[in-house]
C-alpha cells in the first residue's frame, strides 16, 4: 500500500460529533446522510440491544439517506440524491454495526434512479468488515434486481446477508471506494519518494468550490529549460491528457488512474520510452467535491460536469473551467505550436 496510512474500513468521519452523540443517537448527519442511526423494532425505545442495526454513512464518500425496518428481517434503504440534484441516486457506501451473531437480513435499495444498469447483468454489491478488510462481491444467489409492485413499480435492488461476527463493523458499497483523501495520500507518497531524476511535477490546477485540490501531474523527460528555450531533440511533442473522476461515483477509474501513474513514474523500460516520447498531463480527480460528498454524478452545485463542457463556468464549475483553460493554454503556447497530436482520454 505504499506506506499510506488507512484504517480497515476507510471510514474517516466527515463530521465532528458532539460529546453527547452516543451509540444511541437517532440523528442524521450533514447533507442528508444517516449518522449512526439505530433502527429499533416498533414500540421499543431506550438503549439499543444487539441486533438493532446501526447505519452510518456520515463519512467521506458515504451515501445512505434513510433506513426503515419494514419486516422482522427486512429493511428499506433510501439513497441520498446528489447535492442540489434529486435526479441522480445510484452510488451507495455505508456501514452497519451493532449486529447479532448469525443475524439474517434482507436489504432493499428502493430508490435507484437508473432502471438500466449492470445489476440486471449480474453486478452485485461489495462488502467487507473490520476483521476482513478485503472487498468481496456478494454471491449472485443473494442479489436480486427487479421491478417491485410494492414500491410503485420502481426498480429495487435486494440483497440477503448474514452477519457472522458481532464485534465487526460491516461496510457495503456499489464499487471499490476511492476517496479524495486517499488520492492526496498517494500523491504525497510518490512525490516524497522522487529522487534527483524527477519524473513528474505536481501542481494545483484549481481549488474546487469547497477548497479541495484539483491536482495536475505532468509526466515526461522534458526539462523546464528545454521547454522555455524550445531546445528539444524531437521534431514534435505528443501530449496525452488523462481526466479522471468527472463522475464522482466511477471509483474504479481512480484505481486504474493510480495504476497508470504508478507505471509511468516507475522503472520499467517501457515507461522510460513513454516518458521520452510523450508528455502526460493527468488530472486524477476532476470532481473532488462530488467524490468527497458521496455524490453519484454531480459536483457540489448539482451539475453533471461531464455534460457541461460547453459551459465550464468559473463560478459553478471552476474545475472544468480550469481544465479547458489548461488545454487552451497548451494549444496556444510555444510547446503547443509544436504539437503533432493530442489525445484526450476521459476515464
TrEMBL record:
Q: Which cofactor does it need?
A: Zn(2+)
Recorded superkingdom? Eukaryota
GO biological process annotations for this chain's record?
proteolysis
Provide an example Pfam family for this protein.
Peptidase_M14
Q: Name one GO molecular function term.
A: zinc ion binding
Q: Which family does it belong to?
A: Belongs to the peptidase M14 family.
From the Swiss-Prot or TrEMBL record, give the protein name: GG11764
Amino acid at each position: 500500500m505504499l506506506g499510506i496510512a488507512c484504517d480497515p474500513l476507510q471510514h474517516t468521519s466527515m463530521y465532528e460529533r458532539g460529546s453527547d452523540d452516543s451509540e444511541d443517537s437517532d440523528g442524521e448527519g450533514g447533507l442528508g446522510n444517516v449518522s449512526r442511526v439505530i433502527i429499533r423494532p416498533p414500540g421499543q425505545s431506550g438503549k439499543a440491544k444487539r441486533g438493532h442495526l446501526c447505519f452510518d454513512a456520515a463519512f467521506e464518500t458515504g451515501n445512505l439517506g434513510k433506513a426503515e425496518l419494514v419486516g422482522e428481517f427486512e429493511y428499506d434503504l433510501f439513497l441520498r440524491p446528489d447535492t442540489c440534484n434529486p435526479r441522480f441516486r445510484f452510488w451507495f457506501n455505508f456501514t452497519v454495526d451493532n449486529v447479532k451473531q448469525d443475524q439474517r437480513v434482507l436489504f432493499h435499495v428502493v430508490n435507484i434512479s437508473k432502471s438500466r444498469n449492470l445489476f440486471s447483468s449480474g453486478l452485485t454489491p461489495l462488502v467487507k468488515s473490520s476483521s476482513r478488510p478485503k472487498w468481496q462481491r456478494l454471491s449472485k444467489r443473494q442479489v436480486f434486481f427487479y421491478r417491485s409492485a410494492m414500491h410503485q413499480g420502481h426498480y429495487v435492488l435486494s440483497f440477503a446477508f448474514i452477519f457472522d461476527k458481532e464485534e465487526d463493523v460491516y461496510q457495503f458499497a456499489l464499487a471499490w471506494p476511492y476517496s479524495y483523501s486517499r488520492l492526496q495520500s498517494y500523491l504525497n507518497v510518490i512525490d516524497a519518494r522522487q529522487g534527483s531524476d524527477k519524473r513528474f511535477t505536481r501542481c494545483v490546477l484549481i481549488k474546487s468550490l469547497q477548497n479541495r485540490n484539483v491536482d495536475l501531474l505532468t509526466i515526461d523527460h522534458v526539462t523546464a529549460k528545454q521547454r522555455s528555450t524550445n531546445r528539444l531533440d524531437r521534431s514534435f511533442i505528443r501530449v496525452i491528457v488523462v481526466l479522471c473522476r468527472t463522475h464522482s461515483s466511477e471509483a474504479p477509474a481512480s484505481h486504474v488512474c493510480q495504476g497508470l501513474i504508478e507505471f509511468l513514474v516507475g522503472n520499467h523500460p517501457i515507461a522510460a520510452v513513454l516518458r521520452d516520447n510523450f508528455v502526460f498531463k493527468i488530472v486524477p480527480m476532476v470532481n473532488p467535491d462530488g467524490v468527497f460528498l458521496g455524490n453519484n454524478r454531480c459536483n457540489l452545485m448539482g451539475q453533471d460536469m461531464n455534460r457541461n463542457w460547453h459551459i465550464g463556468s468559473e463560478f459553478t464549475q471552476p474545475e472544468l473551467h480550469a481544465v479547458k483553460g489548461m488545454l487552451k493554454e497548451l494549444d496556444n503556447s510555444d510547446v503547443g505550436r509544436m504539437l503533432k497530436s493530442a489525445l484526450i482520454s476521459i476515464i
